[in-house]
Amino acid sequence: MKPQPITFRDGRQVCPLGQGTYQMGRRRKEEVQALRRGIDLGLAVIDTAEMYGTEDLVGEAVRGCRDEAFIVSKVLPGNASYEGAKRACERSLRRLGTDRIDLYLLHWIGHYPFSETVRALVELRQEGKILRWGMSNLDVADMERILSLPHGEDCAANQVLYNLHDRGIEFDLIPWSAGHRIPVMAYTPLGEGRLKDHRVLSRIAQRHGATPTQIMLAWMMRTPDVMPIPKAGSADHVEENARSLAIELTDEDLREIDRAFPPPTHKIRLAGW
Ligand code: NAP
């Protein structure tokens, strides 16, 4: 089956391939063009964070096409007190040059209680400043804690590390998220570009007239409601990545991938931040 749209719990659907922006800014003009090309191709989800220093760049990329984009930003744990999260959100809105963030995440667990951060996120949503809120870098036990809070069931997404080298979340977090209809955003889906010459991926890619990068992305999108958000700094890379949406991997492809990158057989602690 070809990749299907991601469906959030409120019914909003987006393309299953998003765009990352971490470490953008050095080739700003080219990167803005790359993000715009992505939006033109339907890659609506653009991922940023107050930490990345790319919110203004994202704001520039969506100028004139804000309604076609779905902006994700994140509050730093150190700013995630009740008051701090509200102020951080205002600053992000200003840098983005927009009146709402489509999805606002807690970047990773800090020292403020979840209850305090979630209270701020719920209110920001009620005020219309964010349309959805979610988490990042949370494993199953912490996601359970979020869901047990007042309004916790509104948690719209969890963004975690996932790629062929780090398949741990397939054991528990992905099935758990599917059971709760919480889409998983997969960060560093290309292993920061390190897997693009892998022998097995190259062989599969050849069969599809594709590239190893496209195979990696198609492989991630084989699972419903899993959305890779590769960072691509050029329009050429964005176009290449977007073509992965048309790839349908065969059972034989998947078996070869499993032999080269074995799936988890037990609980593995969540990797990443
Ligand atoms: P990534 O997307 O796995 O890899 C990015 C690298 O892949 C860049 O060097 C890029 O090069 C290259 N690339 C992209 N498309 C390519 C193509 N078609 N062919 C060859 N190379 C290609 O790594 P990432 O940036 O760490 O992760 C993606 C996004 O996830 C981040 O940008 C960020 O938005 C998010 N993230 C979130 C967290 C979190 O804690 N929530 C942590 C890390 C990352 P070019 O730039 O030259 O295209």
What does this structure look like?
With 273 residues, the protein is α/β, with parallel strands linked by helices. It has one domain (6-193, 225-232): Alpha-Beta Barrel (TIM Barrel). It is 37% helix and 12% strand. It contains ten helices and nine strands. The chain has helices at 28-40, 55-62, 82-96, 114-126, 140-147, 173-179, 199-208, 212-220, 235-242, 251-260, and strands spanning 6-7, 13-14, 45-47, 70-75, 103-106, 133-136, 158-161, 184-187, 226-228. The protein has a seven-stranded parallel beta sheet with strand order 3-4-5-6-7-8-9. A two-stranded antiparallel sheet has the order 1-2. Strand 4 (70-75), helix 3 (82-96) and strand 5 (103-106) form a beta-alpha-beta unit. Helix 2 (55-62) crosses helix 3, helix 3 packs across helix 4 (114-126) and helix 7 crosses helix 8 (212-220). The chain is globular, with a radius of gyration of 18 Å. The model has no long low-confidence stretch (mean pLDDT 97). It binds NADP nicotinamide-adenine-dinucleotide phosphate (NAP). The site of NADP nicotinamide-adenine-dinucleotide phosphate (NAP) has 28 residues, from helix 9.
What is the structure about, briefly put?
The protein is an alpha/beta fold. It has one domain: NADP-dependent oxidoreductase domain (TIM Barrel, Alpha-Beta Barrel), CATH 3.20.20.100.
Topology overview:
Elements: E1 6-7, E2 13-14, H1 28-40, E3 45-47, H2 55-62, E4 70-75, H3 82-96, E5 103-106, H4 114-126, E6 133-136, H5 140-147, E7 158-161, H6 173-179, E8 184-187, H7 199-208, H8 212-220, E9 226-228, H9 235-242, H10 251-260
Parallel strand pairs: 3-4, 4-5, 5-6, 6-7, 7-8, 8-9
Antiparallel strand pairs: 1-2
The protein binds NADP nicotinamide-adenine-dinucleotide phosphate.
Residues 20-22, 47, 107, 136-137, 159, 187-193, 196, 213, 229-234, 237, 240-241, 272-273 line the site of NADP nicotinamide-adenine-dinucleotide phosphate.
